[in-house]
Design a protein that fits this description.
12 helices, FAD, membrane, FAD/NAD(P)-binding domain, alpha/beta, 7-stranded mixed beta sheet, globular, plasmid
Length: 397
């Protein structure tokens, strides 16, 4: 089989993993990214065992372990009273999956992937404006006038994907009803235990803290996020984010107040959360979608990055040893679309329960948490993990 070329549009987690995966099977890969400086959107990622399994498959197990936080337990806390609603170990999940999950800093993870892939093969400041199939190749045109050709193109260009627009036309993004603030702070036992994913819940809101790897100073860190249901469309100034959080979570328990006080006002991210109704067309001819361009989801299952990493591994599998690229891309679509549609809709349903779309339903969930042993929550996570394309390589017998 002659060496095939691929252009990947987008240097996010999914695009970089796809580049690493396809290079492993002999493809010549170039990545084009529209921004001139890569600044990840969002401070952290929850990488559950299905995502970690796929990273191990790509030869990145040691690297991701070094970046990850040691998360041994999970706890839900009443946001108003500070009472523990439930707390339980994650060990049964790690044991059944054959591997543990890791919360990680998004920026550090993206930097690692760029180093592994090779920064010299990533072109920054390249905004795609047009795609055109020409026989057995695809021509890409960029805003600066550059043209590039390859045997196929992967659109890993995120929720606002131009590659998806080329394939399907514009799709409507659905506002999920809440704003997410997120960032990173130094570990503080007065905020949460260093080995626990701790989530404060009340009033249809969340304040959540996960341990991630140490910073440059060697200090352990927490990735945090806050969720606040509110209408879309506000554009507050960044310098006001902290005071807005203080207002939204006024009266909440002392650890939440301590977390807000510890946050660097200039480093808090604010994101209005959207998703897109699942669709089944991920590939046409020599062009395909991957990651958020194919399955834009709310973060309520913590599976966005894991889904993109899974995409990369399945794409590698379907393209291995074949010259029939269009057929391989159709096989990739067939293998991925149904699983990802299910996860998008499950995340949407969880989002509604968590964020008080029906207050009575949310109150029932709070009551369930007060009686939770961990078994039901871990079973729900395990259901997702068991769909990993490499699950059988790791899972306990």
């Amino acid at each position: 089989m002659s060496t095939k070329t691929v252009m990947i549009i987008g240097a996010g987690i999914g695009g970089l993993c796809a580049g690493i995966a396809l290079r492993r099977i002999g493809f010549e890969v170039r990545i084009f990214e529209k921004v001139r400086e890569v600044r990840p959107v969002g401070a952290g990622l929850s990488l559950w065992p299905n995502g970690i399994q796929c990273l191990h498959h790509l030869g990145l197990g040691a690297q991701i372990r070094d970046l990850g936080g040691q998360m041994e337990r999970m706890a839900y806390i009443d946001g108003l009273t500070g009472e523990t609603m439930c707390a339980f170990p994650l060990t049964p999940l790690w044991n059944s999956a054959g591997i543990r999950g890791y919360p990680v800093a998004r920026a550090a993870t993206q930097e690692m992937l760029m180093d592994v892939f090779g920064r010299e093969h990533i072109a920054l400041g390249m905004r795609l404006v047009a795609l055109q199939e020409e026989g057995a190749q695809v021509l890409a045109r960029f805003a600066d006038g550059t043209e590039s050709r390859a045997d196929f193109v992967i659109g890993a260009d995120g929720a606002h994907s131009l590659v998806r627009d080329h394939l399907l036309g514009p799709l409507e993004r659905r506002y999920a009803g809440y704003v997410n603030w997120n960032g990173i702070v130094d570990m503080d036992a007065a905020i949460a235990p260093a080995d626990c994913w701790t989530t404060f819940v009340a009033q249809g809101k969340r304040a959540s803290i996960m341990p991630i790897g140490a910073g440059e100073n060697g200090q352990g860190r927490f990735y945090f996020f806050f969720d606040q249901p509110m209408p879309a469309g506000d554009t507050p100034a960044r310098e006001d984010y902290k005071s807005l959080l203080q207002g939204c979570f006024s009266g909440w328990a002392e650890p939440v107040q301590r977390l807000i006080a510890a946050a660097d006002a200039g480093a808090i991210n604010r994101v209005e959360i959207h998703d897109i109704d699942p669709f089944s067309t991920w590939a046409k001819g020599r062009i395909c979608l991957l990651g958020d361009s194919a399955h834009n989801t709310t973060p309520d299952l913590g599976q966005g990055a894991c889904m993109a990493i899974e995409d990369a591994v399945v794409l590698e599998e379907k393209l291995r040893g074949t010259d029939d690229i269009p057929a391989a891309l159709q096989a990739y679509q067939q293998a991925r679309a149904a699983r990802c549609a299910d996860l998008v809709l499950r995340a949407r349903a969880r989002c509604d329960v968590t964020h008080g779309v029906d207050p009575a339903v949310t109150e029932r969930w709070y009551d369930e948490l007060r009686h939770e042993t961990g078994a039901a929550i871990l079973a729900g996570i395990a259901k997702t993990v068991e769909g990993s394309p490499v699950y059988a390589e790791f899972a306990a017998g």
